[in-house]
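Sample 3 of the quickstart, ligand C2E:
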Amino acid sequence: MSETPKVLVIDDEEAICELIVAVAESAGFEATSASLPRDIEDAIGGRFDLVVLDLSLGEIDGIEIMSKLGATHRGMPVILVSGADQTLLDTAGRIAEMHKLRVIGTFAKPFSLDVLKTAMMEWSQVIDQGMDPTGPKVIINADLLLDPDLLHLAYQPKVSTQTGEALGVEALVRWRHKDHGDVSPAILVALVEQEARTSELLDLVMMMAARDRKRYRALASLADISINISVLDLNDEELPRRAQRVLLEAAPSERWTFEVTETAPITDVAPALAILTRLRIAGFRLSVDDFGTGTSNYERLLVAPFTELKIDRAMVSRLDIAAVEPDPMVRSGIDVGHSLNMQVVAEGVETADQFRMVRDLGCDAAQGYLISPPVVPVQIDAALDEWRRKFEYLS
Ligand code: C2E
Ligand code: MG
Ligand code: MG
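Result:
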């Protein structure tokens, strides 16, 4: 690393600031802190690589700071801490994302300092891998970003909630360098979007998925493989033709799904709708990814010919077996999907209780760590065997 990364700690309690500063220093950061409103205002004008922000700051609040930070430090990674409960923190996290900040962790007080330290260390490794998280620049050689030798796909099964059978898998991109380690897809995709190279990433992903599907029996025998596309790809008039050329070599179009998630605002709805409709006319399936986290543009997109709706894991994780009424958002998501004849999938199902709840609420399919984490092709059969054994005990 060329320079020690800098962290700014903002908390109205000085004692907490001191603690977090100490943790940051032990995680390899140079740390400064601010507690008083005027100091905070001054401090956020400075240069740093990470902010740890308390949401309740007395006279001013963390939400206000987020909007200021977002205006001057677009893409700045933040860790949010608060004495409030996790639900409020999740909401604050979403607001931070709307202000174009990058939330790398949310911690409800009291939290373990070890966990905070781990989050900071992981982040300093990301910086170490040569990427400047504060801006759109990629310090690593731009060629490395989409070097086919560093990319591969992991596949996560999606299963029927009724029969437990695998309905398909989702292809998730992985970037791995023998010296630099792994870069998470969220960061990779953000960098690729900033560099306006999403169609290059998509071409590579489609090519790898088609190749894997021809090469591995476990994939060839599955009904469906999903591929994630960026909304930026929905400006690309050539996409339907390229998708047909690359993917149909391995399987007919009705056995491929494109998942669309709103990682960037959809600026122009009409061309996006046109591309989606052309993909659907070509026979591909279309999925609304991360439903429940996007913005109102989704509503306009719902007139597009989607065949599937994936309820975001943030909503699934809030399902509580003890609640009198299940989460109304999940219920309405399922209703929306079914009334538009879509298959509804619950994402991020981690526990047997969550599986039973989404099944009983009417979700057709489930995906998540309970069933299997994303795995490489040769591990798919074993992962599904293990899942079948679990499923027997679930019903
Ligand atoms: P996504 O499309 O919503 O994919 C699901 C993400 O949730 C994956 O993260 C998966 O590993 C994670 N996940 C699955 N089950 C669970 C669970 O039970 N608990 C928890 N906590 N997480 C679970 P991953 O692989 O890190 O990907 C993150 C996001 O990056 C994806 O979210 C997708 O939006 C994007 N992405 C991944 N691959 C590609 C790609 O090839 N192209 C594009 N454009 N985006 C991609
Ligand atoms: Mg997806
Ligand atoms: Mg998703």
